[in-house]
Amino acid sequence: MRQDGTFTSLGHLGETATGRGDAYARDCPTRQLLDRIGDKWSVLILLLLGDRELRFGQLKQRIGGISQKMLSQTLRALERDGLVTRHAVATVPVSVSYRVTPLGRDLLAALRLMIDWAETRMPEVAAAQGRYDTRAAADPASSVLPAR
After folding, report:
1. Of 11, 96, 116, 129, whose CB has the highest number of CB atoms within 10 Å?
2. Distance CA 31, CA 37 (A)
3. How far is Cα 133 from Cα 135, in angstroms, rounded to an integer?
């Protein structure tokens, strides 16, 4: 254990003495999980699977703009994280469907709150973007972030 109370054993980088991750720690695996659950494709897939089990083709058809490769990669990653299960039936061709796990269902509750917030607050966000864009167009230097 390091002086700051975090463990540095392999596989638990960034884990605190309480057993929780520390997303602010550079090597904390929580960051990878946040990347996954913050990814637009993961969110859309989980939301669709929250309603019912779906086949790969149904997911591809329902999620506009996702490529077959990205859908495959995202489903594999969600399965690896324990958020989705894959069910294959030995037919010709093989029929593969996906469903949300209990762990994924827990996450869905939080995601639905975020989606609801985004859908109801989008007019305010759009207005803020418009104000920013107007300011930036009038004074391009004001939209430049300071150097670090």
Report:
1. 96
2. 10
3. 5
